[in-house]
Specification:
about 170 residues, alpha/beta, 10-stranded mixed β-sheet, 12 strands, globular, EC 4.1.1.112, metal-binding, RraA/RraA-like, 4-hydroxy-4-methyl-2-oxoglutarate aldolase, lyase
């Protein structure tokens, strides 16, 4: 997938939301995008593990961890499962761990920071619900595009071309 979020804003400004949260790059693919799937959880990565161990079909998992940096919601084993299952990327509004290994994996991963502490594994939280941070509502089925400049979100795949208004 090749694009620049700045160019997407230039071409599709009226259709795009730009996330104001300043994330760090952790994965080996700094440019990634795809349809959004969401999880809302707090210091518990059970749903993250379960979801990323399922078929990704190029989707991007957006995890709203409440911005907590107290424990990691994704590490090397879960991220490797995401790669193996065809996920396009992971955005964590929280922490990750195993960052040296994450950088070697062929997947996009963004997070607020890192913490070596494990999270709970109770699978507490919600899946496929709208989540909001950085001034953007991330809705399941919308499209996320991420690169070095940031994250933008659209209601459709803007790279697929103009909407047919027949």
């Amino acid at each position: 997938m090749t694009f620049a979020t700045a160019d997407l804003i230039d071409d599709f400004d009226a259709e795009l939301l730009s996330c104001e949260t300043q994330f760090r790059q952790y994965g080996g693919n700094p440019v990634f995008g795809g349809p959004i799937t969401t999880i809302r959880c707090f210091r518990d990565n059970g749903l993250v593990k379960r979801t990323l161990n399922g078929p990704g079909r190029g989707r991007v998992l957006v995890v709203d961890g409440g911005g907590s940096l107290a424990s990691a919601l994704c590490g090397d084993l879960i991220a490797k499962a995401a790669v193996d299952n065809g996920w396009g990327g992971i955005v964590v509004h929280g922490a990750v761990r195993d960052t040296v290994t994450l950088a070697t994996l062929p997947i996009g991963i963004k997070a607020l920071g890192s913490n070596p502490r494990k999270s709970a594994k109770d699978a507490a939280g919600e899946t496929d619900v709208p989540v909001t941070f950085g001034g953007v509502e991330f809705k399941p089925g919308d499209w996320l595009y991420s690169d070095y400049d940031g994250i933008v979100v659209a209601a459709r795949d803007v790279l697929a071309g103009p909407v047919d208004e027949a």
